[in-house]
Amino acid sequence: MFHGVLPALITPFTVDGSAIDEGALAANVSRLIAAGAGGVVPGGSSGEFATLTHAERRQLTEVTVEAAAGRVPVVAGTGALSTRETIDLSVHAEEAGAAAAMVVAPFYEPISWRQLLAHYTAVADALTIPVMYYNRPETTGVTLTADQYRELQDVGVTYVKDTGGDAIAATELIQTDGPTLVNGADTLTFAALAAGVEGVIWGAASILPGQCVELHRLLVGDVDLRAAREQWARLWPLLHFLESHSYTAALKTACRLVGGGTGPTRAPLLPLSAQETNELSALVEDASRAKSMYREASAPR
């Protein structure tokens, strides 16, 4: 179901940060789809879901689904601290038209495997759309084995968004039976696509969707390793910057630099410093030339 580049969306806020900017959100979704996105993912970490009210999380899903208008699937982030709230948000996402629910493990304190399995069983039993496990061990304190992922698949978890940063563990899941892995670690995108992943949920794709889609095409469609390496060399410094700073704040700043509607981040997140913003601006400018340079180099003479 999920093939290609699925941008992890930011959540645009009004100038004072008090509400979701629905117009900016819809415009961002349309821009990303026009650039070739294979889907969109609202309500994840990049979307500041932890700072949203329950009502805002529902609003975010509804506006995104309406803006996508059936052109691409919407994978809605619905993870919460309690099983009851996770089910409520997930059922709402399905009713709103989302194609899947992306569920991070409850993250206040690490929970046991028995508790985790029961949690995901309850969520999957409440839905008819797929459940995607959002692997984020640095936040949840939970690290699963390939065998545990297969147990999750048995109860209805058919996808894994992997942001764990462990390429060895990811490769095991790619090469063995289990839920379909969708890469979510920006700086491992090249390795994941080269290893056989066909879908990536990618924060940087909200900044430069065309360049990210082009990398996917080069590695999965054209299988042009030389050109893909050149594209990756342009993108990687930007991705490294994002992961080396406050990711969400840096992502939102970069989206603003390319002309997207963003609004502020919500506290406790703070904006980047002027020096960081200048450095990020240079990286975005350099990475934005990757696609055009590839096309010029590969054009018939």
What does this structure look like?
It is a single chain. The chain has 301 residues and is an alpha/beta fold. The chain has one domain (4-225): TIM Barrel (Alpha-Beta Barrel). Helix content is 50%, strand content 10%. The protein contains 13 helices and seven strands. The strands form two sheets. The protein has a five-stranded parallel sheet. Strands 1-7 form a two-stranded parallel sheet. Strand 5 (157-162), helix 7 and strand 6 form a beta-alpha-beta unit. It is globular. The model is unreliable at 296-301 (pLDDT under 50).
Strands in their spatial order, largest beta sheet: 2-3-4-5-6
The coarse overall form would be globular
E-strand count: 7
The helicity comes to: 40-55%
Largest sheet: 5 strands, parallel
Q: Kindly report the name of the CATH homologous superfamily.
A: Aldolase class I
Q: Which CATH architecture is right? A: Alpha-Beta Barrel
- Looking at the chains present, what oligomeric state does this protein adopt? single chain
Which stretches of 5+ consecutive residues score pLDDT under 50?
296-301
Quote the beta fraction. Answer: 5-15%
**SS field, number of helical segments:** 13
- Computed CA radius of gyration, to the nearest angstrom: 18 Å
Distance between the termini: 38 Å
Under the CATH scheme, which class? Alpha Beta
The overall pLDDT, averaged over residues, is: 95
Helices and strands: which structural class?
A: alpha/beta
* Count of the separate structural domains: 1
User: What fold name stands as the CATH topology?
Assistant: TIM Barrel
N to C succession of SSEs: EHHEHEHEHHEHEHEHHHHH
